[in-house]
Write a structure and sequence with these properties.
Elements (H helix, E strand, L loop, with lengths): L2 H19 L8 E5 L5 H8 L5 E4 L2 H10 L7 E4 L8 H7 L2 E5 L2 H10 L7 E6 L13 H12 L4 E7 L8 H19 L7 E3 L6 H6 L4 E4 L1 H4 L10
Parallel strand pairs: 1-2, 1-8, 2-3, 3-4, 4-5, 5-6, 6-7
Length: 234
């Protein structure tokens, strides 16, 4: 068994254990393998182990892999980085999900640039649940208005919420943020019943996020190893 396979299986086992401890079905929590800066060959190796959903932070880095792995027709590409206006067309034309929407302007560009022959682009709204100034995401007060706007865009499909919780060792503080995200999603589901995704939790806080209701965890380094930085990270 390769080191990569060992790492992947260890993450899978950890996620299954987290679901079991939380009294949840493991099928209800998606593993998003964050493959940013890693080569296409590593992505394909993890794909061969059964993984289908991969997360990319950089448009060009992601496109290199999407092109190289175009023969894998059931791979699911998630854009999970900050998105600039001049990169929206590429994302709209090639990705299946965008998890970092916090501005109506970016959502509208993605809607207008999504090809008609493709299914609607799946959208998660990023919430700055910790209220940290340096973090992207809408405030809880802004969330309703953004959800209402995105829900009216025909080439987008609003699927749920995403957050990056505070980097803190205070587990109760983290749990409060995760529980608040779950409440926000539940409130929105009353108006938008198609919402089914709550993306929260990474390597350090996966178990707590699953216990608090996450339906997708984003794991990179624990699968692929330490990240490399692309020369052009646009």
């Amino acid at each position: 068994m390769s080191t990569l396979e060992q790492h992947y299986q260890a993450v899978r086992q950890r996620l299954n254990q987290a679901c079991s401890a939380a009294g949840r079905d493991a099928q209800d929590v998606k593993l998003l393998a964050v493959s940013k800066t890693k080569p296409a060959a590593m992505v394909e190796a993890v794909y061969q182990l059964g993984q289908r959903s991969f997360g990319e932070n950089y448009v060009q880095d992601g496109m290199d892999k999407i092109t190289a792995l175009s023969h894998l027709d059931d791979i699911d590409w998630h854009f999970i980085g900050p998105l600039q206006s001049n990169k929206t067309r590429t994302v709209a034309e090639h990705f299946h999900w965008v998890e970092t929407i916090d501005r109506e302007k970016i959502a509208r560009r993605l809607n207008d640039q999504r090809p008609d022959h493709m299914p609607p682009l799946n959208i998660l709204l990023q919430v700055n649940i910790s209220g940290e100034e340096q973090k992207s995401g809408v405030t809880t007060a802004q969330l309703d208005a953004l959800a209402a706007a995105v829900s009216q865009m025909p080439r987008l499909c609003l699927r749920g919420l995403m957050c990056i919780a505070e980097h803190t060792g205070d587990e109760e503080k983290l749990a409060q943020q995760f529980r608040q995200m779950k409440t926000l999603l539940s409130d929105l589901q009353g108006r938008y019943p198609q919402l089914d995704t709550l993306s929260m939790g990474m390597s350090a806080d996966m178990e707590l996020a699953v216990a608090c209701g996450s339906s997708e965890v984003r794991i990179g380094t624990d699968i692929f190893g330490a990240r490399d930085y692309p020369a052009n990270n646009g």
